[in-house]
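Long-time lurker. I teach an intro course on protein structure, and each term I like to show students one example going from raw sequence to a predicted 3D structure in token notation. This year I'd like something fresh instead of my usual example. Would anyone be willing to generate the tokens for the chain below so I can use it in lecture? Attribution to the forum is fine with me.
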Amino acid sequence: MKKYFLKLYQYNQWANKRVMDCLVRQNVDDEKILVLMSHVVSALFIWLCRITGESPEPYPLWKQYSLEELTKMSDEITQRWVKFVEGEESFDRVLVYHNYVGDPYKNNVEQIMIHLVNHSSYHRGQVALLLREKGFEPINTDFITYDRVITGQWKD
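-- Reply from a regular --
Happy to contribute to a lecture. Here you go:
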């Protein structure tokens, strides 16, 4: 399971970095795009904080960060997730927590981790659509592209 999660979170790191680089390169300042990527990054912080027992309070779920803030935050949290995965022995445990409106829940950490990468992919897709609609060029973040890149099969 650890090998699976390590690859999944390395992929998420790669995909988020590609999107952030794309936004920086094109100097994107669209509010909807920045809010969506802020949401992705905040969710990564919030879930890791919950899992590790830290307070998620410093990371509002729907705050809009600047492109500069987002780039730094995205780099930090994706590295923290990979480090977390590398250091954990088992993800098969139940997490008891409250969501951002205070409702109590219990979920398996493995399921949360799968959800979080899917959540990121979902919102990266929304960002890609918005980029195209606003006249920008989106970037490919498909998992199969990542896999081709890391195995040396990617052709530019």
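Some talking points for your students: The radius of gyration is 16 Å. The domain at 2-150 is CATH 1.20.120.450 (Four Helix Bundle (Hemerythrin (Met), subunit A)).
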